[in-house]
Amino acid sequence: MRSPNPEQRAADAEREVLNLVIRDGQPIVVVDSPPGTGKTRLVEAVTAVAVLHCGLRVAIATARAEQSYQLIRRLAAGFNGLPIQPLVSTQRPLPANVQVVPSLLPVANRPGGLRTGPLAVVATAAKLKVSLPDFGRLPAFDLLIADEAYQLQYKELALLQAISRQMLLVGDRGQLPPFVKIDTSRFDAASSKVHWPSPKELLRVNGAVIPVVQLPMTWRFVQDTVEFLQPGFYPRLQFISAVSAGDRNLEMVTRGMGDPIDQALDLLSENASIVTLIAPRKTLAAEQVDQELAQLLAQVVQRAFTRGATWRGFGKLREPDVGCVDMHVASGAALRRELLRRRVSVDASTGVFVDTPEIWQGLQRPLMVVKYPLSGLSRIDQFALDPGRACVMLSGHQIGCVIVTRAGVEESLDEYQHDSGARATGAEDIAWTGRQAHGALWQELKRRGRIISLS
């Protein structure tokens, strides 16, 4: 029986992965994880054991270059003597803070420049793919690790199977699927879902023989948040929080005026991790920016600073400790303007970070203020209902999240008429999955008294 101790449960899961990959030599292993469970730490541990203790050659594939840079820095800092070699394009030189990483081997622009022997090669999946003709004798690696594997389309990973004897896919199934530039409806009923996230497609086809390990603990948010997100957005993945509410206390130094914004902030200071502010109902035309809601989001941010919002034990929240998410670029720009009017910095690195869910994937801040995806919509569609989009927006906070929306969300969900015939036979029904996830979230918000109306 697994120990209830959070650190021990995490260690048990890590040991299970190591046994499957290193001891048993499983060809493919999938690790499913919610946000904040230490996916990157697991990737680092497996890499270090494989290279330093087993003398293996390991390739780590990432979806984006920034992920590669972060992984290089963390591997070098955590494992002294681990041979790390970046494989990068000549058109994308390493950032200065990566070039100075101690013990980093010279950059390779082609597979021929990779060192022989035990080695950890870090590259984007795109770079590995274009390098395939230059690898020569295959497989070139003993183990290929796909970090944030649910961000990689199957068509990308399928090609990379040739370069390695084994694959370890680590990722978060609740996040947004990989961005695809073309209309994928033509592939919905295909025998191979080449546009699906790579672990999802591999499990669909070979789920009976691929071992799946679920990481059971999250260190990002408290149990209160888990109880909001897990039922609707991770129904097949059971996990709990490894932190106590006492470790994530948000305090307000000064008292507020008692208006709805203050009521929401006061709820956060009483260990409610997710609260909702509802503005009066107002239906907007398609693509119309809701200026009033942008002002409300900015007011929430400004009020938190005015009242001296403090993470107990860590000090007052600064501008870089707060993030805002809006699923539309235009309304996100309106929010930035409103924050600037209130003399709040929106610099991406030193101010309040405002961007879309696609950019927020994998990021976190102590306090998040988000515009709900279904706000102000007269007719909700698949884009707004996408459960991955809402999941990313609602899982980026460490202490608290304030959802800002227009009244009418529940009514829109109740009136939503789902057309099952609008999709091809065998296609995934994302809209209905999203409808169920949003419905479960709003039921929980009502049940716990987390909805505050401005009217």
Structure report:
The protein has 455 residues and is α/β, with parallel strands linked by helices. The protein has two domains: 6-218, Rossmann fold, CATH 3.40.50.300; 223-453, P-loop containing nucleotide triphosphate hydrolases (Rossmann fold, 3-Layer(aba) Sandwich). 36% of the residues lie in helices and 18% in strands. A hairpin with a 3-residue loop joins strand 12 (310-311) and strand 13 (315-316). Helix 1 packs across helix 2, helix 8 runs antiparallel to helix 16 (430-447) and helix 10 (291-306) packs across helix 11. The protein is globular and about 70 Å long.
In a nutshell, what does this entry contain?
The protein is an alpha/beta fold and 455 residues long. It is built from 16 helices and 18 strands. The protein has two domains: 6-218, 3-Layer(aba) Sandwich (Rossmann fold); 223-453, P-loop containing nucleotide triphosphate hydrolases (Rossmann fold), CATH 3.40.50.
Write the layout of secondary structure elements.
Blueprint: H1 6-23, E1 28-32, H2 39-53, E2 57-62, H3 65-78, E3 84-86, H4 96-99, E4 119-124, H5 125-130, E5 141-147, H6 154-160, E6 164-171, H7 198-206, E7 212-214, E8 217-218, H8 223-233, E9 240-241, E10 250-251, H9 260-269, E11 274-279, H10 291-306, E12 310-311, E13 315-316, E14 322-325, H11 329-341, E15 353-355, H12 357-360, E16 365-371, H13 382-385, H14 387-394, E17 397-406, H15 409-415, H16 430-447, E18 451-453
Parallel strand pairs: 1-6, 1-7, 2-4, 2-5, 3-4, 5-6, 8-9, 11-17, 11-18, 14-15, 14-16, 16-17
Antiparallel strand pairs: 10-12, 12-13
